[in-house]
Amino acid sequence: MRHNEIATSTLNSLQSIEGFKGVAADLVTAKTKVNISNAISYLLGNVLVVDTIDTALRVQRRIGRYYRIVTLDGDIISPGGSMTGEPEIPEIILHLQLMRKLIN
To answer: What is the C-alpha separation between 39 and 100, in angstroms, rounded?
Structure first.
């Protein structure tokens, strides 16, 4: 499995944006007996987490449409620019549920 990573220079430029929380893979911890860090990195390594949709739009304007951006409320901006608002089950949760099934 390859790691999805965001360039350090990109992350450094985002640190100055108020409301930027980080990369989803860095914000997730797994409490499993099996090391799933590669799976977490693969699924969440190119997902950015921000506080609000306004912050998400600022991030997208700064770095372009290369990464999925997720808000704490569950809004998602896809790399192509499409937006979905507050789904019943955010896509990241679906990925985490899939990972749980794979290791069990």
So the answer is: 10
